[in-house]
Design a protein that fits this description.
With 339 residues, the chain is an all-alpha fold. The protein has helices at residues 2-41, 46-51, 57-67, 73-87, 100-135, 140-154, 157-171, 187-212, 216-223, 228-239, 241-258, 260-265, 271-280, 284-312, 315-338. Helix 1 packs antiparallel against helix 14 and helix 11 packs antiparallel against helix 14. It is flat, with a radius of gyration of 26 Å. It starts with a helix and ends with a helix.
């Protein structure tokens, strides 16, 4: 009986994951169509950009023909989509002549490393300050943390990065201002991204914890004589995790694509800086391939969050199972009525 129930649960978990994977397809197609449309109608000529302002019109026309820029919108879009689906070919860079996917995979580790360090800082700072602020509501610590979090959310990342460079690199000369040649080079960019993201984690943790610690079972746990640390961490924090995990997952996905300006400020050779350079050079295949790659990464992060939901909150799979049983019941009723 137990093994049968476990097998049924695993079946619905796999079905749940498969459903989320299939839902990624229209999202990725929509993102690709939007970016392709924006690049197609954006001003500028890639051929003129490559050849320079002094190139003849004949040379520009020949390069446009070679790059396939004379084809219509739908022809270019479906050719690009066909190459991705059937050949896993994301195109060739106009400026370097190298396959886009090779360039993207070569630069993505830098972006992933920056996102991982920034997310670690955000999670540690956000969770600690959020829990303490919720437990000590309206205290001096809570008021100061709330004000600081509002400043962190409102402050643009590139502006904070420039301020950090002026203070810690130019004035104090403690840390290098640009590059990625050692651990010390990652401190300023990781702190720049991590502190701004920590503000969102802190506010979500605080609000979620405040909602949970007012529940009756928290008062029951305290009345049993359990220590405050056990009550907060085992009972309150565990039941407040769902919205916190959602914010952390979306934050990490945003860090992968949102580190564009920070990578440019600190001259990190990651995917964000690569996209900025490609946009300025009108290198359409690089922009399309990079955005699609980041969209896939973001979707996979969301899928991972959905899988974590299944293990943290059993109600997710239970609700999914009930919907499946309801559909089966409706289908049987329809067959019976037809008979």
């Amino acid at each position: 009986m137990f093994s049968s129930a476990l097998a049924e649960k695993e079946f619905y978990v796999l079905k749940y994951i498969l459903h989320r994977l299939l839902a990624m397809i229209p999202v990725l197609l929509g993102i690709l169509l939007i970016v392709f449309t924006l690049m197609f109608f954006s001003p500028g000529n890639p051929a003129r950009q490559l050849l320079g302002a002094n190139a003849s019109e004949e040379a520009v026309w020949q390069l446009e023909e070679q790059l396939g820029l004379h084809d219509g919108f739908f022809v270019r879009f479906f050719n690009y989509l066909k190459d991705i689906v059937f050949h896993f070919d994301f195109g060739t860079s106009y400026s370097t002549g190298h396959p886009v996917m090779e360039e993207v995979l070569a630069r993505f580790p830098y972006t992933l490393k920056l996102a991982a360090w920034s997310a670690s800082i955000a999670i540690v700072l956000g969770l600690i300050t959020g829990i303490i602020s919720a437990v000590r509501q309206y205290s001096t610590f809570d008021n100061v943390a709330t004000v600081v979090s509002l400043i962190g959310v409102s402050m643009p990342n590139f502006w904070q990065g420039l301020i950090n460079i002026i203070i810690f690199s130019v004035a104090l000369k403690w840390l290098p201002s640009s590059g990625s040649y050692g651990p010390e080079y990652w401190i300023l960019p990781a702190v720049t991204l991590g502190t701004s993201c920590a503000a969102s984690v802190m506010r979500t943790t605080r609000s979620s914890m405040l909602e949970v610690i007012r529940q009756d079972y928290i008062r029951m746990a305290r009345s049993k004589g359990q220590s405050e640390f056990i009550v907060i961490m085992k009972h309150a924090f565990k039941n407040a995790l769902i919205p916190i995990i959602t914010v952390i997952g979306n934050m990490f996905g945003s860090l992968l694509g949102g580190s564009v300006l920070v990578e440019s400020v600190f001259a990190i050779p990651g995917l964000g800086k690569y996209m900025i350079d490609a946009i300025s050079e009108r290198d359409y295949p690089v922009v399309l391939g990079s955005v699609l790659f980041l969209a896939v990464c973001f979707s996979l992060v969301n899928l991972l969050i959905d899988i974590i939901y299944c293990f943290i909150d059993p109600r997710v799979i239970e609700q999914y199972r009930k919907e499946g049983l309801k559909k089966k019941f409706v289908a049987k009723e329809a067959v019976a009525n037809e008979a």
